[in-house]
Amino acid sequence: GGNLEGQNGLLSYRADLYLTSLEDRAFQPRHRFSISAGVPLLNVTLGDVTPYFNDLVLWGRRVRGVQARFYTGWVNVDFIQGQNMRDVAPIFSVTIDTTVTPNDTTVTFSRTGTFSQSLLGVRPSFGGKTFQLGFMLMKASDDTTSIDPDTSGVTPRSNLVVGSDVLLSLFRNRVRFKASVAHSFVTNNTRLPILSKAFVDSTYGIDLPFDPASLKSWLVVNESLTPLDPSGGSGLAYQMGFEFNSFGHFITAGFKQIGSQYISFGHSFLRKDIRGFYVNDRWRMLNNRLFFNAGFERYRDHFDTIDNNPSTVLNTMQLGLAVNWAPGLPSVNFNFRNHDRDNNIDSLAVAALAGVDRREDNRTRDFSFLVNQEVQALNLQHTISLGLTSSARVDRFGGTRMAGIPTSDIVSNLQSLTVRSRFQMPLITTLSFAMNKNQAGGQLAPFKYNSANAQAEYTFPRPSLRAYAGFRFINASGKFGVAGATNFNSIDYTQTGLHLGGSITLAQQHEFVLDFGVLKYNDKGGVFDIPTATLTPNPSFTNAFVRSHYEFRF
What residues are paired with 143 via a beta bridge? Predict the structure, then answer.
């Protein structure tokens, strides 16, 4: 890969290229390339872009196409158009049973297909940094001609989202208020016939003020459309947030609700069917020597219980303290987090519908403590870091779970020690040790590991040459099984690794980096068969790599 950027008068430009041997036509693109150019009011980018227009509608989704932004400070337009999914052909087999009449045909997919999907997004906005009102329109649709719809294993879909957002910033950004709202429509099968105005009136008793066929360029209205009735609010999403940064406090608070049928193809990781609020405060005290954090959030997951499944209340409380009093004194960081999940089902008779224990009432408590201390010893300057981390999840119904369903208890403890030493010569060494012990599902999944790392780095004054070497050792043991199974996975392995490398910089413009390493993996574990008391071992192996890098600055 590589990148190039520069400026010539008012014109600025940039080009980026990233190529990888992992690129495969059977998956979404892994190569990345883009070229952009712009003047103060206008910027245009061609290639792979990740637009951030609206955090409910279009946020961080890769699109290969053209993106443009026209920004005057009072009237602005953001535009994106391109392909956000490329077509991938399915892999399937067809079996015909001729022993019955008519013949029975079975299609088995080892990989379903993916339609090529195009995306169009437009966000006009009014205002600048202190106040801005924006309107968002995004349309994404599958191209039914990209692969054969009849043999793809999936149906072509389309998505239309409209929304708006507002930002208000006061007192030099010390007080900020932002809010956004959006509504989405998803057609889950665009090949179905479009509903007629008369059909909607006779079937649903709704007199539409428009003909659905007139919207087919933007929205395919058929029986697979969700939500078919937008008045219920299941396709609606909205959120609002407040920030206050003054008097040593940075306070954030907000509320959001994402409907159960709200989907945006421009935001892949947006969590839907959730409603709740949050509030956090980061308090700086004593000239930034002491920091105190406190926060609380409460959400209701799956708040729309139209499917008769229970909703789950999520409560999270967190506290943190950081002390950095003086250079000669230790710095301390402490964090605590308590997370509760409860779906208010207490009776096993109610929970055990269809043989599934749906009860959920558990608490997870996370604790971390880190202390750093500068120490002068043996004419060397040392930085010693000691870390303790603990996480414990307790299942209220752990002792009364149904047969075959293990408890969800999880306990993990980690202790670490790091010593970083600076010699009088330009040599820095780092030694670190860690011990970790885990327990999950009662006694079904115990696991522990110990690790040791050593690294040294030496910088030569002339020429600008840097050399480094590292050693790593890991030992792990444990097992993983399922209640009632006749076998379990035995874990027993060691990893030994060596890493060497260096870099040289010439004329402050050219930098060359070369390093290599070797990793030996010795595995004594495998699948243990309980009835026969035999072990099917896992393979051991050795990996080696060589890596080089060149950078030119001008």
Answer: 116
440 with 413: CB under 8 angstroms?
no
Tokens of 329: 């004194």
Task: Give me the long-range contacts of 344-351 (CB less than 8 A, separation at least 24).
Answer: 344/310, 344/313, 345/310, 348/400, 348/402
**Token pair in block for residue 548:** 């080089």
**Segment 532-536 mean pLDDT:** 92
- Count of CA atoms in the C-beta half-sphere (13 A) of 552: 5
Separation of alpha carbons 531 and 138, rounded Å: 59
Tokens read off for 109 = 């997919």
Q: Judge contact between 452 and 432, C-beta under 8 A.
A: yes
Q: Answer with the residue of higher pLDDT: 349 or 471.
A: 471
pTM of the model: 0.82
Which pLDDT score, from 0 to 100, does residue 404 have?
Answer: 57
* pLDDT, tens digit (0-9, with 9 covering 90-100), for 113-123: 999 999 999 99
What's the confidence (pLDDT) of residue 399?
Answer: 63
- Token pair, residue 310, equals 């229970």
More confident residue, 407 or 107: 107
Asked if residues 520 and 542 have their Cβ atoms less than 8 Å apart, the reply is yes
Q: Rounded to an integer, what distance in angstroms lies between the CA atom of residue 11 and that of residue 15?
A: 14
Strands 42-49 and 63-71: antiparallel
- Which residues on neighbouring strands pair with residue 364, listed in sequence order? 339, 393
Mean pLDDT of 30-54: 97
SS3 195: coil
Residue 36 · residue 45 · CB < 8 Å: yes
- Cβ neighbors of 47 (< 8 A, separation 6 or more) are 16, 32, 33, 34, 35, 64
Chain segment 264-313, per-residue pLDDT in tens: 999 988 999 999 999 999 999 999 999 999 999 999 999 987 777 889 99
Give, as one character, the DSSP assignment of residue 199: H
d(CA 464, CA 461) in angstroms, rounded, equals 6
For residues 457 and 307, the model is more confident at 457
Tally Cβ neighbours within 10 Å of residue 516: 13
- Average pLDDT for 161-187: 96
Report CA dihedral (399, 404, 407, 410) to the nearest 10 degrees.
150
Angstrom distance (rounded) from CA 227 to CA 239: 20
d(CA 143, CA 385): 56
How wide is the angle at C-alpha 283 spanned by C-alphas 281 and 285, nearest 5°? 175
In the predicted model, is pLDDT for residue 512 greater than 60?
A: yes
Read off the amino acid at residue 143.
D
Query: Which contiguous run of DSSP H or E holds residue 198?
Result: helix 197-204
Helix (H) or strand (E) holding 201: helix 197-204
Average pLDDT over all residues of the chain? 91
429-438: burial string, b at 16+ Cβ within 10 Å, e else? beebebebeb
Q: Where are the alpha helices (DSSP H) in 364-443?
A: none
Confidence band, pLDDT 50/70/90 cuts, at residue 349: low
